[in-house]
Design brief:
The chain is mostly helical and 159 residues long. It has one domain. The chain has 4 helices and no strands. α1 packs antiparallel against α2 and α1 packs antiparallel against α4. The longest helix is centred in the first third of the chain and has 38 residues. The relative contact order is 0.18.
């Protein structure tokens, strides 16, 4: 029974952390996309379906880190999960970003200060992609009360 409770705790804490961090990260990414479109003189578009897809993508990328961090304090396993989530985001975001940059530079002809602002937005995306799985993992570990380092246990005896 104790094992079942532990597994349920890991699953619930991991799913909760991945969902919340994914939704927040997705909203930040959606705002960054809007900012990129405004700076590059593109017509900004919005759809609830697209926004939901972005949030689900970020939540799926946060899930490995969140589940592993809720289950173990082993640093190697946590970093491997972080890399997996980051790789998923990179596979999705880099092609879209490359298309947006080429459209901004070649089609709309942005230059000067706009390029600097677009670079700043792109750096923000990089920080979001690299940091999001780590934040999801740490959040899940806090929810599941998994310490980062082993805590010394003191045996207490009854008189």
């Amino acid at each position: 029974m104790n094992v079942l409770v532990r597994v349920l705790r890991v699953l619930l804490c991991g799913l909760a952390a991945a969902t919340v961090v994914g939704a927040v990260s997705g909203a930040l990414a959606r705002g960054g996309m809007r900012l990129f479109a405004l700076v590059s003189d593109a017509a900004p578009g919005f759809s609830w379906t697209g926004s939901l897809f972005i949030a689900v993508t970020f939540a799926c990328a946060a899930l490995p880190s969140a589940l592993v961090a809720a289950a173990t304090r082993h640093a190697g396993a946590r970093w491997l999960a972080h890399l997996l989530g980051t790789a998923l985001l990179i596979m999705v975001i880099v092609p879209i970003g490359a298309d947006e940059w080429s459209a901004a530079l070649l089609v709309r002809g942005v230059a000067g200060g706009q390029v600097v602002l677009l670079g700043a937005v792109s750096v923000g995306f990089a920080v979001l992609v690299l940091g999001q799985p780590v934040i999801a993992g740490r959040s899940a570990a806090l929810l599941a009360r998994v310490p980062l380092r082993p805590v010394a246990r003191v045996a207490v005896s009854s008189p």
